[in-house]
## 1
Amino acid sequence: MVVTEASEPVRRRRHGKQLEAALLAAGWDELVEVGYARLTMESIAVRARTSESVLYRRWANKDQFVLAAIEHYRNTHPVAVPDTGALRSDLLAQLTAMSEALAGFFAIAAAAAFSGLLADTGLTPAQVRDRAIDAQQLPHVRVIYERAHDRGEIDLDRIPAAVLTMPFDLVRHDMLMDLKPLEPARIQSIVDELFLPLVRNHLRSKR
Amino acid sequence: MVVTEASEPVRRRRHGKQLEAALLAAGWDELVEVGYARLTMESIAVRARTSESVLYRRWANKDQFVLAAIEHYRNTHPVAVPDTGALRSDLLAQLTAMSEALAGFFAIAAAAAFSGLLADTGLTPAQVRDRAIDAQQLPHVRVIYERAHDRGEIDLDRIPAAVLTMPFDLVRHDMLMDLKPLEPARIQSIVDELFLPLVRNHLRSKR
DNA sequence: CTGCTTAGAAAGTGATTCCTTTCTTGGATG
DNA sequence: CATCCAAGAAAGGAATCACTTTCTAAGCAG
């Protein structure tokens, strides 16, 4: 017959880390698109242009794989830590980044992961959140506040913890509800109408 | 043979609304216990002490049934509307009622419903929330604020909408994260450290 | 160049589960 | 009491899907 079929491009084999990353990325995309319950190992293999056996060589079962895919997405999509020189702009930037980078994706993934993963892994949504979403997020937030504290903008010791976490709780809430990035106006509202007025009570005299 | 077997109690047949309520209640319990993905029509039938055909005579498929079960739970578990005579205690009561009545149940159900139901029904979590959770909740909330407004405690027109919804957003957020009722201390913190300080800016002079 | 690991294709197994169908009989209705 | 609708039991069809097995050959290590 003919040496090469016209419609069949040469397919290179991937190996090691490169292949693994492609598998996990495909798993993530599938998770976002159809959700955990409708996600099948075959659909992932097809999307990654490989076969199921390659998946099962690396992960014992579907749940392990999905967990790994979520974790992999988090590791490869770090949220930038802004340093704009002022608490308000720092917060706006951080919340926007958090929203745009994660909303939709994390929201769906977290929601999708809940029903299926909870039953099998015994994790609570909060644990999933800790493991997949906020693991590297919280230290960053703390940094923002500490910088503001050092600049003398706020007195960290006098602000209730609920105030400090509130902006992030609300962003997370909105993401879960709408499955898409927050409107900039909403983020500004959270900062300007909710957070800053509360912090203002504890402002050190700046000038 | 013998007329009645010792271990076989007489099984009465249920009909109409009574049967339907039992089916939906069983569906709800199953949803809360194992989640949408692991819920089967057979397990529901067993729990309701009936058979699958009874289910399929009333609902076209699993998704329709689950949606109906969620709606039924909401209809049969209204949240009380407190009237304590003051905004703060009204809010505390409302948030506590909302939390205790719905947390765990709604959280799991909503989360469980997401992955499976979203794909099939095309609903977003926000729509599920509107349809199943807050449908009758929001008017109640409005009532609380309007009473406070009429008492002269607050000036509704001058308070940003974000402030008014914030306590409920946070309760919903915490429920989704922890799948259990909020600690009373957390509710108090939301009201006393977040909500009231923000409202206080717009308090009319009471005395 | 040689050999060994493993990617990738393909087929299949077994379990689950949605949904249907058939049949018997309880019990509501007149 | 007679009639009839529907409850409940039981069995099965058909599809899906997690996971396995087998085989060929790609491409890295020596």
## 2
Amino acid sequence: MTTEEHILNEARDIFYRKGLAGTRMQEIADKAGINKAMLHYYFKTKELLFNRIFEQAFAVFAERVAEVLKSDVPLEQKIVDYVNHTVDALAETPGIPVFVLNELTFNPERITDLFAGKNKIDISYFKDQVDNQTHGKTDANNLFMDMVALCVYPFVIAPVFKRMLQQSDQQYKTLLQERKAHIINELLKRL
Amino acid sequence: MTTEEHILNEARDIFYRKGLAGTRMQEIADKAGINKAMLHYYFKTKELLFNRIFEQAFAVFAERVAEVLKSDVPLEQKIVDYVNHTVDALAETPGIPVFVLNELTFNPERITDLFAGKNKIDISYFKDQVDNQTHGKTDANNLFMDMVALCVYPFVIAPVFKRMLQQSDQQYKTLLQERKAHIINELLKRL
DNA sequence: TTATTAACTAACCAGTTGGTTAATAATTAA
DNA sequence: TTAATTATTAACCAACTGGTTAGTTAATAA
């Protein structure tokens, strides 16, 4: 692993937990076991280092969503794939959603860039697919929003749900895995 | 309006948009049109001022949820009330969810305090109610999580959904209002 | 009126923070 | 081998930040 990758890994961990403003360059340097000057040597500024981390994190979401909206598989399969892939991905790095949401809130101008050019994502193809298949019975916007909400929110609010549902870390993890089938079941009912 | 309330209002606006670490005491003072020393005169430290704002914000969620879990009305009515009240409350102050999620992520120890003593929230009564009424057909944990997720997440991710669904601010607002009926409809189907 | 308390301000301060610099070590190319 | 480039460090710095202080004005109580 190169020094650059090593820095990125430590920086990611800290940025995920403390955000841009709450993170200290010195802390990243310490965790990475290097001199603070090295951070600037490799990444110029704090913001540029943060951008690298953020873009990686955002891609996790964007890729899944883009796939659902564009790919040519049957609707049922799309939903099954989205739920399974998204929940599995978030189970690996549960800190991602809040990190991304946070940055988009603190720095809303970023959204314009994220959805520019080739990353332009729109729902129209998915919408047509839903309309054709359900003959207008199911609203595509709500189906899409529900699908994402049901998958992502339990990760976002994990500490609170864990408490309210009185689940240990391990129990909650299991619960989220079993939830995949529940979400798929509920969504497919509507088609 | 007292100076204290005035400070709280300006501080809330800035904390919601920038978080604890990203907010400067000087900026709050400027927006409130007072001297920075006044902030410390009224609230002692930045953290104490932040706590006041946070506790207010968290109460918005906690109250709705506590009501659902404890109150003695029929299940159907509970769900209708929760969805309507929650969406209406968030429509007024859409910045709240990310603000709260953020702080809970950056400062997880806080959760212990929030659910201590009289604020202790547990789902067991709600669970019994669901079990009795559906004879085990519907899982109470998932019903509860779905209910919250479907209401709150569209506010949390608003800027992204707005882009992907190609909705103006006004259109998205309307969409969220109309969504209330959709959410209620989907949830009641399961009972 | 006057003494006391509350509200408010300008100037200041010590600690922190992102970032720089000048010098050195390690690697690579000639 | 040697010249040149890359990687790394210790020390430093200017700007910023939360918080304080000493003093002033406004309101309240005696």
